[in-house]
Specification:
This protein is of the alpha+beta class and 363 residues long. Helix content is 47%, strand content 21%. An eight-stranded antiparallel barrel has the order 1-3-2-8-5-7-6-4, surrounded by six helices. Helix 8 packs antiparallel against helix 10 (227-237) and helix 11 (276-290) runs antiparallel to helix 13. The longest helix has 37 residues, at 37-73.
């Protein structure tokens, strides 16, 4: 469901112009048509099928190239058979079968034997699941939780109520332009207007190639000859701005561009300090239950900015369907357990209903 967009196609998928966008009116919840969930469901089905087909083509191409590379490197010498075997495994990207990973697994297995698995050992060392969590805690959050390939920023603009139309026109002419310039090395995940919650708050999510890419993108964009004028105008339209840098959870890659329609819900959870790893552990299982009835866009945890915050972004045909699909979640095995385990980890939570802006790649 959440297959990552192909890296080689990301730039072309994000490159677009604003010539076809109507920026004369800010989008509103009233614009969303109700009782069109069948259209949403069909678009969702087509989107998932396309992702699966693209992933299959990419996998077949990768396997073909790897096989060709292996054949080219193979040597008839018996003495090289051992090293050739290792090369083949590494070339195929088999992960746990590689030499270094295999050695690590052997060491882990030996350590596990020393720990033991009898009743007394379980009493002292806890369950196997508990030991795994302890091992994870010893590693950094970035290694355990995040995919690491991308850094995302979430930007909240609180727009003055009488400046909303001007804001939409200004940002709609600038953001897609910046995302469409390859030298800026940035993807615009999406742009939304809050309609229920902090009204007239606009939310933008950007994607960068790690932190080095974030710095490079900022430099490129702010060096653009039109940036100073854009920034000057923007400051006259907003009353506040908040930015956080985030990473996506390893089990929930951010969706590629798509146009399903409907409404979005951004759920923000502020966790008690020190509970992020446990949150991820339970939500990894809970998502398997949720994705059967709900369409997720992405999930991120903040690393710089509003610490201990987690953001989940969902998409629904309309508010009535949102209610129905959330209720259906309780019928999915494992969801009740996820809620039971994660609620005590939360300090506070917030929900906002949003509509996509005309230029949003995810809409």
């Amino acid at each position: 469901m959440f297959t990552r967009r192909l890296a080689t196609k990301a730039s072309s998928a994000r490159a677009f112009s604003t010539t076809s966008h109507n920026l004369s009116k800010a989008p509103a919840l009233a614009d969303v048509q109700i009782d069109t969930h069948h259209v949403f469901d069909q678009r969702q089905k087509d989107f998932r099928a396309d992702l699966a087909a693209r992933a299959k083509r990419d996998r077949e191409q990768h396997e073909s190239q790897s096989a060709a590379s292996i054949l080219a490197k193979q040597s008839p010498s018996p003495a090289s058979s051992s090293s050739s075997s290792t090369t083949e495994l590494g070339g195929l990207g088999l992960g746990s079968l590689s030499t270094s990973t295999g050695e690590r697994l052997e060491k882990d297995a030996a350590k596990q034997k020393r720990v033991g698995s009898g009743p007394i050992s379980k009493l002292i060392y806890g369950t196997e699941e508990g030991r795994k969590m302890d091992q994870d805690i010893e590693r950094s959050f970035s290694q355990v939780l995040a995919r690491g390939k991308y850094v995302h920023s979430v930007v909240f603009h609180e727009v003055k109520p009488d400046k909303v139309e001007e804001y939409v026109e200004l940002v709609g002419g600038w953001y897609p332009k910046m995302a469409g310039m390859p030298e800026n090395k940035v993807n615009l995940v999406g742009s939304w207007r809050t309609e229920v919650g902090d009204c007239d708050t606009f939310v933008h999510i950007w994607e960068y190639q790690r932190y080095a890419g974030y710095h490079a993108s900022l430099h490129a964009i702010q060096s653009h000859p039109e940036f100073a004028e854009f920034d000057r105008k923007l400051k006259t339209l907003i009353s506040s701005k908040k930015t956080s840098l985030m990473q996506e959870f390893s089990f929930w890659p951010t969706s590629p561009p798509r146009q399903l329609g409907g409404v979005f819900e951004l759920r923000t959870y502020t966790l008690h300090p020190g509970n992020l790893l446990e949150w991820e552990h339970h939500w990894r299982k809970g998502l398997e239950a949720r994705k059967e009835v709900m369409e997720g866009v992405g999930a991120w945890f903040v690393q710089i900015g509003a610490l201990n915050e987690v953001h989940h972004l969902w998409q629904f045909p309309d508010l009535q369907e949102r209610k129905g699909r959330r209720e259906q979640s309780w019928g999915q095995a494992g969801w009740a357990e996820t809620v039971h385990r994660t609620v005590p980890l939360i300090q506070k939570m917030n929900s906002r209903i949003m509509v996509p802006l005309p230029w949003s790649p995810i809409g």
